[in-house]
Amino acid sequence: MTAPLGNSRDQALQDRARHVIPNGMWGHMATRAITPGYPQFFSRADGCRVWDADGNGYIDFMCAWGPNVLGYHHPEVDAAALRQLQVVDSGNGPTETLVELAETLTPTLAHADWCLFQKNGTDATTACVTIARAGTGRRKVIMAKGAYHGAVPWCSPSVIGVTTEDRAHLITFDWGDTASLDAAVAQAGDDLAAIILTAFRHDVGRDQEMPTRDFLTAARTHCDRTGAMLICDDVRAGFRLDVRGSWAVHGVKPDLAAYSKAIANGWPLAAIAGADRAREGAEKIFTTGSFWYGAAAMAAGLATVRILRDTDALAHTEAMGNRFRKGLDEAAARHGYRLRQTGPVQMPMVLVDGDQDLRIGNALCLAALRHGVYLHPKHNMFLCAAHTAADIDRAVEGVDRAFADIAAAGVVPA
Question: pTM for this structure?
Answer without folding.
Answer: 0.96
